[in-house]
Amino acid sequence: MTAAAAPLALSANVRARVGALALEVELALGEGETLLVTGPNGAGKSTLLSLLLGLRAPDAGQIACGSLRVFERQAGRAATLELPPESRGFGWVPQGDSLFPHLTALGNVELAAAARGADRGRARALLERVGAGALAARTPLQLSGGERQRVALARALASSPRVLLLDEPLSALDARARPELRAALVQLLAELRLPTLLVTHDLADAQALGGRVLVLEEGRAVQRGSLEELRASPESPFIARFVASRAEGA
Amino acid sequence: MSRLGAALVRAAALLLVLLLALPLAALLVHGGPAALAGGLASPLVRAALAVSLGTSLVSLALVLLLGTPLAWLLAKRRAGAPGAVETLVQLPIVLPPSLAGLALLLAFGRRGLFGALLSHAGISLAFTPAAVVLAQLFVASPFYVQVAESAFRAVDPRLMDLSRTLGCSPARAFFRVALPLSSRALLGGAALAWARALGEFGATLLFAGNLPGATQTLPLAIYAALESDVNAAAALGVLLLAIALGLLWLARRSAAQLFARGRREESEAMR
User: Fold this and answer.
1) B14 and B66 part of one domain
2) What is the pTM of this model?
3) Angle, nearest 10°, between helix axes B33-41 and B43-76?
4) Are residues B213 and B91 in the same domain?
5) How many residue contacts between A and B have a Cβ separation below 8 Å?
6) What is the CATH number of the domain that holds B250?
7) A169–chain B Cβ distance below 8 A for any pair
8) What ipTM did this prediction achieve?
9) Which domain holds residue B139?
10) Rounded Cα distance, B92 and B87, in Å
11) In chain B, which residues touch A (CB < 8 A)?
12) Distance CA A55, CA A165 (A)
């Protein structure tokens, strides 16, 4: 019962209308916990992340990061609290290539470290930590897809995040590079014990990372639970297909 | 028949190339090393060179300082029909410079719309280097703002978002991400604006006058020298030509980079 009393690393309850999508999601993430968010294309997974990050304002709801209140707005009113993205403390790894093309691998990590007032040594240490220490002087064009994601992860960590938000971190990789980086990610997350929200459409990620799964469809959470629970009683055709799918590149 | 057509195309092209090349060749013949040395020795030429460099560098600084924020704001607007500000910014590019000079005179001249206001404040612009700077700013800044706006538009907004989530304030994100990603293009735009400022003639003549040592720039000095000494005018011309070639090289280098970036993004989008 003590687990229930532990403070939540992230709690959010947001509503937003974006184009044809009406998003309404409630989610909670405990300290050290990993939550997987999955769902069909257009379900609102990336939109949910942009709401949490402060890149888009919800129409209503609240977001808190541990004891830090990040966003508060009642329906039909102006927001009473809206921290800018730089004050929220989320470490974001966006989908696809996201490295700053004018900076080296180390420069990318240093930009984040410097923005948080950390010294350059920390940037190098983080690059080592994700297994990209030897790539420090390379530019993004000289890196493979997997290497870029490692650097992007180190950069997100350099911003001293309270919560990690990873948007399909493995999807841009080819089938050979994926298992290797997945294993590295599993190990790193286990060591860091950082609360992590990971968006994926790959069953293998859910199998490897464990933890709870939240399934979004058309902007709503249709099911939450462990992979076993989803498998035992899938509540939608999408979920049934997802749990029965052959894991990509597993 | 088709062979005749091909010959006509070539002849037309050659004719235009000759029309562009011959005047410059004549300039080089008249303004040879001896004339150039003689011209540079003349106090009038040296004064004009000083006025030109001084005013155009001040103009350039103002163009960068004021044009960069304007270009950034314009680039952040949603793409769509050009608004009043865009039209205002583009207009001086197609406006005859003498018209610009007349407009400046009517606005800030001694008897202009704001002339009384300025003279109350103890400011008299007419026949001062400040008037030269104002004329240059009016005709040259649009060239920079245009290039800077399209460079800023080419910056991936996701990278700007990302830098914010990493802890950068909007200002820091601008200086660490948007500015370095656009730097080569901005340099090219600055080169274009500087070239336009250096070559400014009509607006300067009408608004600032042709006062040696104060408002007489190189182009105005060429005009003045022509009455007495063709070779001196040609020497001045060669000087301007050399500067212009350097600026063209700068502008081209950055255009090539903008083009290369556009192509890279295209090929990535196609993957």
Assistant:
1) no
2) 0.84
3) 90
4) yes
5) 57
6) 1.10.3720.10
7) no
8) 0.90
9) 34-270
10) 9
11) 158-159, 161-169, 172, 176-177, 180-181, 268
12) 13
